[in-house]
Write a structure and sequence with these properties.
This protein is of the alpha/beta class and 282 residues long. The chain is 50% helix and 12% strand. A 6-stranded mixed sheet has the order 3-2-1-4-5-6, sandwiched between helices.
């Protein structure tokens, strides 16, 4: 059996949290919702998906589920095994990366903090190629080309009819590191300036002179959905693996960390001025 997706885990953990807050046992819910306790347990532990009619029956038992929350949970159930354009690249991307792309496709917002790289959704193809090649080390040219195609395709979330609201905080060190030559880096910095003009893209620079801050622990992304659902998830990326943080208390902690980073970063206009200044020196 394939590992459960982030969507399915989020749905299962939220249904378990709601059941325990009522509170009801697995057997009690199963009896009233015309399910078996085993099936309900497998739904809550993300081993199987849930049919829309079963989900409605469960939510009716728990009560107090508003329209937005119910719709969000149905979206998770419907898309628990969702297949998208990224499935074409299933031989070159990891399940965790596929989860990220799938989440970006559904998300309302994304708050990204990067310490040493330009965020993937803001990269040029030349910058993406150079960084992918450097980080993967042993990848073939064809593999790198495929990963570059994926990264560029991901950026469509910024141009879709209801675009992703992206807030990126980039450490100044990432902007001062010349990747793939001066010309390519100049183009990359110009792309940041161009994208910052979009109403749904916000870019701040965390200066080298910033006082100690939560971002010293490393890069992370907070992927947000409806404000009322409490179903946000955090991605912490490493060289060989990715960690999805789904516990609401831990997600909230990352949200607080991001607010502190916002306060420490340069304002938008000053950030744009610095990016332009660095571009002009290349």
């Amino acid at each position: 059996m394939a590992d459960p997706t982030v969507r399915r885990r989020r749905l299962g953990s939220e249904l378990r949290r709601m059941r325990e807050s009522v509170p009801l046992t697995l057997d009690e819910v199963a009896l009233r919702a015309d399910l078996t306790a085993t099936k309900l347990s497998r739904i809550e532990t993300a081993r199987i998906n849930v049919k829309p009619s079963d989900l409605d029956g469960i939510l009716d038992l728990y009560g107090g589920v508003d329209v937005a929350k119910r719709a969000a949970l149905h979206t998770l159930a419907k898309d628990g095994g969702k297949r998208g354009w990224w499935q074409t690249y299933r031989d070159v991307i990891s399940p965790e990366y596929a989860d990220l792309i799938s989440l970006e496709a559904d998300a309302r917002s994304m708050r990204v903090f990067q310490t040493s790289l330009i965020p993937g959704l803001l990269q040029t193809s030349a910058y993406a190629r150079a960084t992918i090649d450097a980080i993967n080390m042993t990848s073939t040219a064809d593999h790198v080309n495929a990963l570059v195609e994926v990264r560029m395709a991901r950026q469509s979330v910024l141009t879709r009819p209801e675009p992703l609201e992206l807030w990126a905080i980039i450490h100044e060190a990432a902007l001062r590191t010349t990747i793939s030559g001066a010309r390519a880096m100049k183009d990359q910095l110009q792309k940041l300036l161009d994208l910052s003009e979009l109403p749904h893209v916000s870019i701040q620079v965390l200066p080298l002179s910033a006082t100690p801050h939560p971002g010293m622990a490393g890069s992370f992304s907070v992927i947000g959905f409806s404000d009322t659902t409490g179903l946000d998830v955090v991605l912490v990326e490493g060289m060989t693996s990715s960690l999805y943080v789904e516990d609401p208390a831990e997600v909230s902690r990352y949200g607080l960390a991001y607010e502190r980073l916002r306060a420490s970063a340069r304002p938008f206009s000053e950030s744009a001025d610095l990016i332009a200044e660095l571009k002009d020196t290349l």
